[in-house]
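Suppose you are handed a protein chain with no further information: no name, no annotation, nothing but its sequence. What can you learn? This example shows the usual starting point.
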Amino acid sequence: MPLVAVVMGSKSDTEAMQPTLDVLTQLGIDYEVSVISAHRDPERARQFGLSAREQGIEVIIAAAGGAAHLPGVLASWTTLPVIGVPLATSELKGVDALYSIVQMPAGIPVASVAIGSAGAKNAAYLAAEILSLKYDEIRKAYEKYRSQLQGDNK
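A reasonable first move is to predict its three-dimensional structure. Written in structure tokens, the prediction is:
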């Protein structure tokens, strides 16, 4: 059963989010991928947010560019942790998406990561950290990855 939902606003975001999927796979974390537009299909976004917990999802990673409303819209419909990934899809190269994701109103938090592939990877690592609180196998896989990072710096 997937523990993480990776949600994108458009199919064209798939390439930008591939690093997220690669890291989740590397760490052995089951995930599902959905394409849901907060603007073109707001009812589907609402239903997804309302039903995610019942589906076994424990963390949502939501990627969007431009106005980047998807992470915030999903967060408004669930109390699960939502990690927003700002994508560089406009002339502003993702800064607009970053500001949209980090400027959530009090009470509806969305975690945010960096723009680009480092952010896409960090979204998966942050999900792993969250899930590590409950799942020892994920904690061990993540700790192994982190120990390898330390070895790379020597």
